[in-house]
Amino acid sequence: MISGTGHPLAYPLLTTLGALLLCLVWAPFADAEQLAALAAVALVIVVYTAFRLAVAFGKVPWRTIPTGTFRVRRIRQQHHLTSRSWLEFVAEGQTHWVPVYFDPGLIPLPESSTDCDTPLTLNAIPIHPSGRARHAEPPGRLHDNPTRPDPEAPAHAAAVAHIPHRLLLDAQSAIAAPFIALFWVYVAGGGITAFIAATTVAAAAAIWLAAINGSDPS
């Protein structure tokens, strides 16, 4: 059950609804070709979101969280314009990295030992994978959580968890939206209205993609 904006999946679902609503808003102004494009975008959003939710709730054929007793710590990955939260599971010389949806409770989470199973919670924080487990270190810069509780971490977590802050950070991925719109107008025509519509839809889709893949605002 997903209820309230504090759930790790609330923000990704909010961006999904926003992108679908924007497609619906532009639909009355679209011609047949533009309407087909909007429908295609909406279909991709719905199907990929359903797949990501299946991963998050463990409804896919492969296991995303290893089982057993592990030392677990949270890592923030910065790679190009993307930032994601990962959990690092270490036991008997083996290390697994699992991308997870951001939760403010992950920021002050120190390294700990835990018995892992699905569904998994750490310090009462629900853990929802945002992708497949890796056996190789994720690319990019990795920032570890402190090994001991940080007294300033809860205040930082509360500040970065606000939806406007998260939207602003994920909007970085929408930088290509005007160029996509220009290409669309060049190919299909439509003038300034089509350009504005294509820009906003492409921007919303980019923000949605960042969110549904598990962006980390911290």
Describe the protein.
With 218 residues, the chain is α+β, with helices and mostly antiparallel strands. It contains six helices and seven strands. Strands 1, 2, 3, 4 and 7 form a five-stranded antiparallel sheet that branches. A hairpin with a 2-residue loop joins strand 1 and strand 2. The two termini are 25 Å apart. The model has no long low-confidence stretch (mean pLDDT 87).
Instruction: For the record, give the distance between the C-alpha atoms at the N and C termini, rounded to a whole number.
Output: 25 Å
Radius of gyration, whole Å: 19 Å
Shape: elongated
* Helix amount: 40-55%
Largest sheet: 5 strands, antiparallel
Low-confidence parts: none
- Which structural class is indicated by helix and strand composition? alpha+beta
Strand content: 15-25%
Order of helices and strands: HHEEEEEEEHHHH
Count, helices: 6
Return the average pLDDT rounded to an integer.
87
Number of β-strand runs: 7
SSE diagram, text form:
Layout: H1 10-26, H2 32-56, E1 68-79, E2 82-91, E3 94-100, E4 112-116, E5 120-122, E6 125-127, E7 141-144, H3 153-160, H4 163-170, H5 177-188, H6 191-212
Antiparallel strand pairs: 1-2, 1-4, 1-7, 2-3, 5-6
Helix pairs in contact: 1-2, 1-6, 2-6, 5-6
